[in-house]
Specification:
Structural class: alpha/beta
CATH topology of the largest domain: Rossmann fold
Strand content: 15-25%
CATH class of the largest domain: Alpha Beta
Shape: elongated
Bound molecules: adenosine-5'-triphosphate, magnesium ion
Number of domains: 2
Helix content: 40-55%
Largest sheet: 5 strands, parallel
Number of strands: 11
Order of helices and strands: EEHEHEHEEHEHHEEEHEHHHHHH
Number of helices: 13
C-alpha cells in the first residue's frame, strides 16, 4: 500500500493506492485470517480486527484493503475526533458579483455569497465507494462515531445541517470500512459501542505464532530466519513472564533484529553491544521509580538469564553442539 502525502487543503482527500506492502509475509495463519476477512467484505459487511498491540491488525487491514482493490482512505481515531472531522465541514464562502450593463443607461449589480462545503474522508469514501480504514476507532469518543450507524445499516450518510443543499447522501455499494481496535492496554480508549459492534463483523487477532514472527523478523531486518529465531524465542519467553508494564510485541523483535543487522551484532551474550541493545529495548518495557532499585536489579537479572538461555556464549553453544553430535554418534 503506498501513501501519498497528506494535503492540508480540507477540500482535497488523498487516497492510498491499493498495493501489496513490500516485505508483507504470508503464512498459513495470515492467509486464513485474510480469506475470512475478504469473504465478509465481499458479502457486503464491514469488518473489525481487534487485538492487543503489535499483533498485526493495521498490517492486516492494509492488506485486506489492497486485496479489495479499491482506492482507500485511512483515518486514525483520537480523543479530539469529531463528526465534522469524519464527514466534512463548512469551508469559507463562494463570492459572486454580476454587473449587468445590457441597457446602457442602467447598471444592475447582483452580489451573493454562498457557503462552501468540503467533504472529508468518510463522505468522500461513501460517495465514491472507497475502502475506509478506521484505525484505532475506539480512541474516538462514541458520539463522533455515531454517524457511522446509519451508514452501515441504512446505507445513508446524514450530513450536518450546515450543508443545506444536500441533507444526506446514499452510500455507494462498494463502500466498506475496515476497523481496528485494541481493547486492552491504552488509557483513553473508549469501549466499542454496542450499536456499532452489532453492525460489523469482528475478527479477534492474537499474537503471531512463532513461525510467522520468524518470517516477519527476517523479512523486515534482512537477516536469515536462523539468525532471528533466538531473538523471537527470547522476546516470546519474556512476554510469557508477564514481568513488564508494556507488552513486548513483534515490533520489539523487529527492532532488535534491525539493529543487529545494521550494526553487525552477534546474537550472543559474548557481544556486549548486543546485550546492551536487548537490555535497552526489553528493559524499557518496565518503568521503575527511584525507590524501586531492587526491582530494577531483579529484572535485569531475569533478562540476563533469558539472554544466556536463548543467545548463549559461542563457546558454550559450540560445546553443547559437540556434545549433541557425540550423543548422536553413540546412539
Ligand atoms: N504479515 C506481516 N508481514 C510483515 N510484517 C508484519 C506482518 N504482521 C505484522 N507485521 C509487522 O509487525 C509490526 C506490528 O504490526 P501492526 O503495526 O500491524 O500491529 P498492530 O496490531 O496494528 O499494533 P498496534 O495495536 O500497536 O497498532 C509492524 O512492524 C508490522 O510491519
Ligand atoms: Mg495498529
Amino acid at each position: 500500500m503506498s501513501a501519498a502525502a497528506y494535503s492540508p487543503d480540507l477540500s482535497v482527500v488523498t487516497t492510498l493506492a491499493p498495493k501489496a506492502r513490500p516485505g508483507f509475509v504470508q503464512t498459513r495463519s495470515v492467509e486464513a485470517i485474510t480469506s475470512r476477512a475478504l469473504s465478509y467484505l465481499r458479502a457486503g459487511f464491514s469488518i473489525h480486527f481487534r487485538g492487543p498491540a503489535g499483533t498485526g491488525k493495521t498490517t492486516l487491514a492494509l492488506h485486506a484493503a489492497a486485496l479489495l482493490n479499491r482506492p482507500t482512505v485511512m483515518i486514525t481515531g483520537d480523543e479530539d475526533m469529531m463528526t465534522s472531522t469524519l464527514v466534512g465541514t463548512q469551508h469559507g464562502y463562494n463570492y459572486r458579483k454580476v454587473v449587468d450593463r445590457f441597457i446602457h443607461t442602467v447598471t444592475k449589480l447582483e452580489e451573493s455569497a454562498d457557503k462552501c462545503w468540503a467533504d472529508h474522508r468518510l463522505t468522500t469514501a461513501c460517495r465514491e465507494g472507497y475502502t475506509l480504514i478506521y484505525d484505532e476507532f475506539t480512541r474516538s469518543r462514541p458520539e463522533a462515531n455515531n454517524v457511522l450507524l446509519s451508514v452501515l445499516e441504512e446505507g445513508l450518510l446524514v450530513l450536518p445541517a450546515q450543508n443545506q443543499d444536500e441533507p444526506y447522501i446514499k452510500v455507494h455499494p462498494n463502500f466498506r470500512v475496515i476497523f481496528t481496535s485494541n481493547p486492552q492496554e491504552y488509557a483513553g480508549v473508549h469501549e466499542a459501542q454496542d450499536a456499532l459492534g452489532d453492525r460489523i463483523i469482528t475478527i479477534d487477532v492474537g499474537h503471531a505464532d512463532s513461525d510467522l514472527e520468524v518470517s516477519v523478523a527476517a523479512a523486515r531486518s534482512g537477516l536469515s530466519p536462523a539468525a532471528v529465531a533466538p531473538i523471537v524465542a527470547l522476546v516470546r519467553e519474556f512476554r510469557e513472564t508477564g514481568e513488564y508494564d508494556q507488552t513486548p510485541t513483534l515490533r520489539t523483535t523487529i527492532m532488535i533484529c534491525r539493529m543487529m543487522a545494521q550494526e553487525g551484532f552477534q546474537p550472543s551474550v559474548d557481544d556486549p553491544h548486543f546485550v546492551q541493545l536487548c537490555l535497552d529495548i526489553l528493559g524499557s518495557k518496565s518503568t521503575f521509580t527511584g525507590k524501586m532499585d531492587n526491582k530494577r536489579a531483579q529484572q535485569r537479572k531475569m533478562l540476563l538469564s533469558l539472554l544466556e538461555h536463548h543467545c548463549p556464549s559461542m563457546a558454550a553453544a559450540t560445546a553443547s553442539e559437540e556434545l549433541a553430535t557425540q550423543a548422536d554418534r553413540n546412539a
